[in-house]
Amino acid sequence: MKKFKTVDLCDKYKGSVQVALPILKSYGKLPSFCGEIDTVKCYDDNMVVRQVLSQPGRGKVLVIDGGGSLHCALVGDPLAGLGAKNHWTGIVVNGCVRDVVATRKVPIGLFALGHVPMPPDKHGLGVMGVPVDFAGVVFMPGHYLYADEDGIVVSEQPLQE
């Protein structure tokens, strides 16, 4: 994986990148990750998330807008593991995760608002490949996300440190 520090990217590209508000916490094994963004928008239902993570990730990052719901988790260790197996480099959730002890062992980056043990619904409600807006950032499919211990940076183009 490409080496980078979000602080260095912000220094170099200040004014041309978006920086997420510091509301997301890390729950994956990888402390830093980056890749092209793909998106899902869903609320308390993760069937579309499973559908996307079942596809080859090719080093992409899946950004899930769960509407900020804290009622249930949209990702747990089975979905994180599916993403890792299919070569997704990271997952960012505007919502919750579960199975946090297990997700910390999965070789994927995983950021979320928090964690809760409640599972989601499974009705297949949600849309893929649409712009999503949370944490002060508009996440567009095809843009690039860089995440590490210092935060999340989003750019229209790939960045060089």
How are the SSEs placed, and which strands pair?
Layout: H1 6-13, E1 18-19, E2 25-26, E3 33-41, H2 47-53, E4 61-65, E5 73-75, H3 77-85, E6 90-97, H4 100-103, E7 109-115, E8 127-128, E9 132-134, E10 137-139, E11 144-148, E12 151-155
Parallel strand pairs: 3-4, 4-6, 5-6, 6-7
Antiparallel strand pairs: 1-12, 2-7, 3-8, 3-11, 9-10, 11-12
In short:
This protein has 161 residues and is of the alpha/beta class. Helices cover 17% and strands 34% of the residues.
Characteristic terms for this protein:
161 residues, single chain, Glucose Oxidase, domain 1, globular
- What is the CATH H-level superfamily? Ribonuclease E inhibitor RraA/RraA-like
Return the string of H and E elements.
HEEEHEEHEHEEEEEE
Please report the first level of CATH classification, the CATH class. Answer: Alpha Beta
N-C termini distance:
13 Å
Largest sheet: 10 strands, mixed
The helicity comes to: 10-25%
Strand content: 25-35%
Known CATH architecture:
3-Layer(bba) Sandwich
pLDDT averaged over residues: 97
Give the number of domains: 1
Give the C-alpha Rg.
14 Å
The total beta strand count reads 12
Structural class: alpha/beta
Question: What name does CATH use for the topology?
Answer: Glucose Oxidase, domain 1
**Count of helical regions:** 4
List segments where confidence is low: pLDDT < 50 over at least 5 consecutive residues.
none
Q: Please state the overall shape, judged from the principal axes of the Cα atoms.
A: globular
